[in-house]
Design goal:
Elements lengths: L2 H21 L1 H82 L1
Protein backbone atom coordinates (compact mmCIF):
# COMPACT_ATOMS: atom_id res chain seq x y z
CA UNK A 1 0.00 0.00 0.00
CA UNK A 2 1.15 3.49 -0.69
CA UNK A 3 1.79 6.08 1.98
CA UNK A 4 -1.32 7.98 0.97
CA UNK A 5 -3.54 4.93 1.36
CA UNK A 6 -2.01 4.12 4.74
CA UNK A 7 -2.52 7.70 5.93
CA UNK A 8 -6.09 7.75 4.63
CA UNK A 9 -6.83 4.42 6.34
CA UNK A 10 -5.35 5.66 9.61
CA UNK A 11 -7.25 8.96 9.43
CA UNK A 12 -10.46 7.07 8.61
CA UNK A 13 -10.03 4.85 11.67
CA UNK A 14 -9.28 7.86 13.90
CA UNK A 15 -12.14 9.85 12.38
CA UNK A 16 -14.56 6.92 12.74
CA UNK A 17 -13.52 6.43 16.35
CA UNK A 18 -13.92 10.13 17.07
CA UNK A 19 -17.34 10.19 15.39
CA UNK A 20 -18.45 7.10 17.34
CA UNK A 21 -17.22 8.65 20.59
CA UNK A 22 -19.02 11.91 19.79
CA UNK A 23 -22.32 10.24 18.86
CA UNK A 24 -22.23 7.87 21.84
CA UNK A 25 -20.78 10.31 24.35
CA UNK A 26 -23.61 9.87 26.87
CA UNK A 27 -23.18 6.10 26.89
CA UNK A 28 -19.40 6.43 27.11
CA UNK A 29 -19.71 9.00 29.89
CA UNK A 30 -22.01 6.68 31.86
CA UNK A 31 -19.65 3.76 31.23
CA UNK A 32 -16.63 5.76 32.42
CA UNK A 33 -18.50 7.07 35.48
CA UNK A 34 -19.53 3.52 36.43
CA UNK A 35 -15.98 2.25 35.98
CA UNK A 36 -14.62 5.10 38.14
CA UNK A 37 -17.15 4.36 40.88
CA UNK A 38 -16.30 0.65 40.76
CA UNK A 39 -12.58 1.42 40.89
CA UNK A 40 -13.09 3.69 43.92
CA UNK A 41 -15.17 1.00 45.64
CA UNK A 42 -12.56 -1.68 44.91
CA UNK A 43 -9.78 0.61 46.11
CA UNK A 44 -11.70 1.27 49.33
CA UNK A 45 -12.20 -2.48 49.80
CA UNK A 46 -8.48 -3.07 49.26
CA UNK A 47 -7.62 -0.35 51.77
CA UNK A 48 -9.95 -1.97 54.32
CA UNK A 49 -8.39 -5.39 53.68
CA UNK A 50 -4.90 -3.95 54.11
CA UNK A 51 -5.98 -2.24 57.32
CA UNK A 52 -7.43 -5.50 58.68
CA UNK A 53 -4.23 -7.38 57.81
CA UNK A 54 -2.13 -4.68 59.47
CA UNK A 55 -4.28 -4.82 62.62
CA UNK A 56 -4.10 -8.62 62.69
CA UNK A 57 -0.34 -8.48 62.25
CA UNK A 58 -0.05 -5.99 65.10
CA UNK A 59 -2.22 -8.18 67.34
CA UNK A 60 -0.11 -11.21 66.48
CA UNK A 61 3.08 -9.30 67.21
CA UNK A 62 1.65 -8.10 70.54
CA UNK A 63 0.62 -11.66 71.47
CA UNK A 64 4.07 -12.93 70.52
CA UNK A 65 5.72 -10.27 72.67
CA UNK A 66 3.44 -11.13 75.61
CA UNK A 67 4.27 -14.82 75.22
CA UNK A 68 7.98 -14.02 75.12
CA UNK A 69 7.57 -11.97 78.30
CA UNK A 70 5.77 -14.85 80.03
CA UNK A 71 8.50 -17.27 78.93
CA UNK A 72 11.21 -14.89 80.14
CA UNK A 73 9.44 -14.46 83.49
CA UNK A 74 8.80 -18.16 84.04
CA UNK A 75 12.21 -19.41 82.89
CA UNK A 76 13.89 -18.74 86.28
CA UNK A 77 11.03 -20.50 88.09
CA UNK A 78 11.29 -23.52 85.80
CA UNK A 79 15.07 -23.56 86.25
CA UNK A 80 14.65 -23.46 90.04
CA UNK A 81 12.16 -26.34 89.94
CA UNK A 82 14.50 -28.32 87.72
CA UNK A 83 17.41 -27.66 90.08
CA UNK A 84 15.30 -28.79 93.04
CA UNK A 85 14.31 -31.99 91.20
CA UNK A 86 17.99 -32.68 90.50
CA UNK A 87 18.87 -32.05 94.16
CA UNK A 88 16.04 -34.32 95.26
CA UNK A 89 17.21 -37.12 92.94
CA UNK A 90 20.76 -36.82 94.35
CA UNK A 91 19.33 -36.99 97.87
CA UNK A 92 17.10 -39.96 97.14
CA UNK A 93 19.54 -41.94 95.01
CA UNK A 94 21.55 -43.40 97.95
CA UNK A 95 18.31 -44.46 99.63
CA UNK A 96 17.12 -46.12 96.41
CA UNK A 97 20.40 -48.07 96.20
CA UNK A 98 19.94 -49.28 99.76
CA UNK A 99 16.36 -50.36 99.01
CA UNK A 100 17.50 -52.16 95.86
CA UNK A 101 20.21 -54.03 97.78
CA UNK A 102 17.65 -55.15 100.39
CA UNK A 103 15.27 -56.27 97.63
CA UNK A 104 18.05 -58.25 95.97
CA UNK A 105 18.65 -60.14 99.22
CA UNK A 106 15.01 -61.29 99.27
CA UNK A 107 14.92 -62.44 95.67
Amino acid sequence: MSKTVKRFTLLSIIGGSAYYAYTHRDELSTFITEKKAKAKEDFSDYQNDISRVANSSKKLLDATNRLKTVIDETAPIIDAINDRINEFSYEIEPNLRKINKKLEKYQ
